[in-house]
Amino acid sequence: MAKRVTIQTELTAEELHDRYRSATTAVERTHWQILWLIKEGHTPNEIAFMLGYTARWVRTIVQRWKKAGEQGIRDQRLTLPGAPCLLTAEQQKELDHALEQPPADGGLWSGPKVAAWMQEQLGRPVDPRRGWDYLQRLGRSTRVPRPQHEESDQATQQAFKKTPGGGREAASGVSRGEH
Description:
By secondary structure, the protein is an all-alpha fold. Helices cover about 50% and strands about 0% of the residues. The protein is elongated.
C-alpha cells in the first residue's frame, strides 16, 4: 500500500479547492490542486497518475508547503536568474552602430553575419542563432533582397502590376467596366 502523505494546514479541502480554482497561473493552479487532493486523502501515486506528474514531484510540492507555506508553492521559475548576456551593454551599442553600416563582406546583415561579428568581439565561437537573437533584441530584422527569377522580364512584370495606367487591363487591352 502506498505511503500516506498529509499536510498540516488550517485550510479545509474546500478552501484549498477555491485557491486552486482562483490561481492565475497554470503552475500555481497545479500546486494548489496537489495540496487539495492530498488534503482529501489521495496518495502521491494517485495524484501523480491523475495529473501526469511523478509521485516524487507531488511529495516535493508537499515539502515546499511544509517549509514555506504559500511562498513555497509559487512558481519558482520566475526567480531564476537566467543566463548572462553574451554581449555587454557597451558591446550591444557597438553592434547597433555596426548594423548601421554594411557588413565587412558586403551584402546585407543576417543572423550568421551578426554571429560572426560577435565572435570577433568575444574571441570565442558564437552559434549563428545568437546573431538572430541580437538582431531581434536591437529591434532589427534580417535584410535580404526579394527573390527574383533569373529569367524574369521587368517589362512584363510592370505590365501586370495592379496600378493605374499599367495594370492587367492595359496589358490585355481591356479597360475597367468593359467586361
